[in-house]
């Protein structure tokens, strides 16, 4: 059995702004307002919309798989993801960035630590106050009606989708990246690039029709090392993902000094 040594964690926090209306689907059970077809996911305790960590992480993974041209070879529910089928493939050329960062399913015959954890993201208190003043039929959201055209009969078929309005801010989002070996300093770049890919794509549904464009800002990077895990050491705050990407070489050097993997 291979020993697993966790040298520490890199913690990235950021606010996520909905540049356009955001729809991440939830249950429509009990919602009959205006013939609502697609409701957003909400926290059952306070009825506020949120961004599930699984949605953000899944989009980060899928975009990274696509930009690297990796084969989609493993079905997960209704989706298909890339998984290295053999341990040799997992380790080839320094290691598959997707499988090392985002992990592999438990049923695969080899194992390795998943580097990235992504938390659920709630609305900021300021956005809660602002959205609560809208006074729409559904709190903290808007209703967007679209019309689909039947290609056979040309009949118009309206459908209503619930969205969190543009301008709403969720945060702080928290991404936790475990450092298990020196190669992980470089793998952190995969996480940063994945955030850039998400900004240029969308989160949630109806992205091709304008929904789900997001922007990350107020990005903070800090570390906790195993020698004194109770102490958090902060690097810098960045206004954009691009600023963070531009500073990656300096960040990597700082990480090796403040979170040595040895």
Q: Which band does the percent of strand residues land in? A: 25-35%
Main sheet: strands, sense, barrel: 5 strands, antiparallel
Low-confidence stretches: 29-35
* Count of spatially separate domains: 1
Distance separating the two termini: 20 Å
User: What is the tally of beta strands?
Assistant: 12
What coarse outline follows from CA principal-axis ratios? globular
Name the helix and strand elements from N-terminus to C-terminus, one letter apiece: EEEHEEHHEEHEEEHEEHH
How large is the radius of gyration?
20 Å
Q: Please tell me the overall pLDDT.
A: 90
Overall structural class, as computed from helix and strand content, comes to alpha+beta
Instruction: Assign a percent range to the helix content.
Output: 25-40%
Number of helices: 7
**What order do the strands of the largest sheet run in, or round the barrel if closed?**
6-10-1-11-12
Features:
262 residues, alpha+beta, three-stranded mixed sheet, 12 strands
Topology:
Blueprint (H helix, E strand, L loop, with lengths): L7 E11 L17 E3 L11 E2 L1 H16 L5 E3 L2 E3 L5 H5 L5 H6 L13 E3 L2 E2 L2 H8 L9 E8 L6 E8 L5 E11 L3 H17 L14 E12 L7 E6 L2 H6 L1 H11 L4
Parallel strand pairs: 2-9
Antiparallel strand pairs: 1-10, 1-11, 3-7, 4-5, 6-10, 8-9, 11-12
Helix pairs in contact: 1-5
Overview of this protein structure:
By secondary structure, the chain is of the alpha+beta class. It has one domain (8-256). Helix content is 26%, strand content 27%. The two termini are 20 Å apart.
